[in-house]
Amino acid sequence: MRQLRLSKREITDACALHAVIDQCRVVRIGAVDEAGVFVVPMSFGYDWREVEGPGDVLEFDSEALLEERADVDEDRLEKPDLRPELTLYVHSAKEGRKARAFSRGAQVAIEMDIDLGNIAGDFACAYSRAYRSIMGTGYIEPVDDPWEKRRALTLIMEHLAPDARAEFSPEAVERTGIFRIAVREFTGKERLP
Q: DSSP label at 118?
């Protein structure tokens, strides 16, 4: 994970990172296709969980690898620290530039933020903007399994309109493009008033 230039603004607490994601309603996704670089704002749903270890999910790692990653004290294997793991789900039509690029599977960049208003200064260049943000990278791919598509649509609705009914006909699920972003690395940052 890259270090921020101004580490005093970094959000490192998992609960605070989760709160930023939960409060955001739009994720901006940057990708590259044959026409060049593009950024698209999209509504999203997400899965958040905390997993063990400093790198990829450890469910497939051997005991030997776990021991290498853990601090051993008095012949006891300490559990590795928990770290957040984030999966985003977005939806769109199945046609168009975005759908073509996302359907091939690709590395993407993500950004989401919460606007907290102006920061006033004594002169023009001292003015700034208060915010909380998440930036990261990941891998986007299409979701084809009908059960996961329905679950993704439910997560999107729960995030955007928690009080709305989330029922989807099989035809609606079939004709909707659903994409999963396995966010491999992300950081939080804040500038408070």
A: E
